[in-house]
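Good morning,

Both structures are done.
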Amino acid sequence: MPDIAHILPFMFIALGLVVTPGPNMIYLISRSLSQGPKAGLISLGGVAVGFLFYMVCAALGITALLMAVPFAYDTLRLCGAMYLLYMAWQAIKPGGRSPFQVRDLPKDGPRKLFTMGLVTNLLNPKTAVLYLSLLPQFIVPAQGHVLMQSLVLGCAQITVSMTVNALIAISAGYIAVFLAGRPLWMTIQRWLMATVLSGLAVRMLLDGRK
């Protein structure tokens, strides 16, 4: 089992990533704005199943990889740092569009809402890289039970992601109205998130494997 010293930093990174606009957030917000919070929450159920799929696949693969390849950990750590820097750039790059801008979507039933949430997450490279590049650096093979550590950390990430996304889906309309007349707030949020992600990436590169 991973200790609290590994779970909390991982959850902090998971929080930083979930509040950074990506395919999942954009779809959930768009669905909530066009069809209501309930539709957004149904779609979120599909997103959750996608997270579970990636978590199990990554946990099994990471377990085998760390046991078979001595330098696999450092390779994945570097990939994770590069990914965080990429996400930081995505947050502040010119011409970025706010996920809270209304998008016209057709009215869909619960089954299609759930399926679209699932497909959106399965096709989201952000999800795959999260598990394959960031998760391994918080695993300590010396403590044993690599698979269990992977599953516990994965469940922690899913809990953070589902909680934040549910709140966003429910309050998307209010947030959109608030930000529509306050572009400075959006700019501050983007730069703050870029700073946090960049700081985490630098720390990963400097610390190396403990």
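Second structure follows.
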Amino acid sequence: MTIYKSAEGEQAVQEYYQTFINHWPVPCQQLKLDTRFGETHVLTCGDKTLPPLLLMHGAMANASAWFFDIEAWSKHFRIYAIDMIGEPGLSAQKRLPLDSDAYTLWLDDVMQEAGLASAAVVGESLGGWLALDYASRRPERITKLALLVPGGVGPQRKFLFKALPLMLLGRWGKRKVREMIFGPEEKDPSPTILKFREFFGLITQHVKPRMEKLPIFSDTTLQNIRAPMLAIVAGKDVLLDSKATQARLEANVADVRVICQPEARHLIRERGEILEFLLKSSG
């Protein structure tokens, strides 16, 4: 089953994605890793002798989500920016049941094919949920955990009811929805930012969104996580309950620091704490 609404839409999204890969900020290699659920596309960069760092993007996205972070992070880590299966990257289009161990088995295969026994992980939104799920099921394999607005901890907000009427109001309404999620658009954006806006528009036009809610982790599941964790939540997140996320992480994860950016939306733009945390916890 395809995640795209049409073959033409699939081609448009994947061709646009390839333009980001072609202009990656640092030299990179594209890997195609075999898993039991289909092929997984990974962008890898940074010296092979550096500690491994897995990057897990959010829903309706791909590894290009890390475009602005790669140059700094790849100086200190061997980066594996993974296209999550079932999302508009270059991996298999199969969406697995979230209320199962399927994504853990998939990541087991990815790490085995990449030759990794353990790694640090940065996850954003759905990728944050995936990172938490894996770290709770395979605690011995995750060395550090850095999360941006992670799903599965606090409740999801009923944003769709607000967004749907606006989406019917043409370009103006769609821009308002983007701003509610990502924050106000820059008045004088760079060419790269404009490319990302156009790319997000292509994705929302051509890709079928996930409709199921993210499973909420139990206290016991969160208590299974051993890795040092940094979580950044957004005070104006319209998709997730940030206060509940912070409270539950602080109550259940042994080694965690939670930062709330009070003016941030679901897209965390200020990410300097991530590299600082990863380097400090590398010890």
